[in-house]
Amino acid sequence: MKMIVGLGNPGPKYQLNRHNIGFILVDALAMRLEGRLDFRSEHKALTLKTSLQQERILLVKPQTFMNLSGQSVQDLFQYYDLSLDDLLVVQDDCDLPFQALRFQRSRGHGGHNGIRNIHQYLGPDYARLKLGVSRPSHPGQDVADYLLSDFSKDEQKSLDDFLLYSCEAVETLILQGYDRASNQFNRGAP
Questions:
Q1: Is the CB of residue 72 less than 8 Å from the CB of residue 44?
Q2: 31-34 long-range contacts, Cβ below 8 Å, gap at least 24?
Q3: pLDDT (0 to 100) of residue 190
Q4: Cα-Cα end-to-end distance for the chain
Q5: Interatomic CA distance for residues 101 and 190, integer angstroms
Q6: What are the pLDDT digits (tens) for 116-160?
Q7: Which residues pair with 3 in a beta bridge?
Q8: For residues 72 and 64, what is the distance between their CA atoms, to the nearest angstrom?
């Protein structure tokens, strides 16, 4: 079973925040693979079991808030008896331009508190998909405030295309492996 964890903060207040792009992508995958969003609650997370061809998949949205994501990820990881090769964590990245993505594995947390917390529980040796949300256009704007703000109207118009591209990247990883997915998708925006 592959576990795809999207990082974000629970609650309607954060729903379209840039920092919640992991949750947004997990919802897009659920709709694409299952046509439904009926997640269930387990181990401090919302989960949905699905499949792609013969691969079983567990879609996960931790409900502990971003900075404590490692708690539910570790609990689910142990409950389902998974290996680090079965894990993909989807996160926002303000150092990538909007609509760019990057697969990484066995890297540092890069200042991302959700990733930092997962590293504390599981170490760094798992795959991540970084989804670009850009940096604030105004140099004086606080990065944390920017990440906790909603995507702009223009960005929201392009979000569906970015999510489709990102879903294809995740599906490639599941079916063809990390190396193929990173070689094919680790470039600029679609």
A1: yes
A2: 32/167, 33/57
A3: 54
A4: 28
A5: 9
A6: 999 999 999 999 999 999 988 888 889 899 999 999 999 999 999
A7: 58, 87
A8: 7
Count CA atoms within 13 Å of residue 161 on its CB side: 10
Distances (CA, A) of 24 to 28, 62, 63, 67, 148: 6, 13, 14, 18, 14
- Burial of 62 per CB tally in 10 Å (0-12, 13-18, 19+): buried
Domains and CATH numbers, the chain: 2-185 (3.40.50.1470)
Name the CA radius of gyration of the chain, rounded: 15
Q: Give the chain's residues under pLDDT 50.
A: none
Catalytic residues: 19
- Reference 99, options 19, 172, 190, 25; nearest CA is 190
What pLDDT was estimated at residue 188?
55
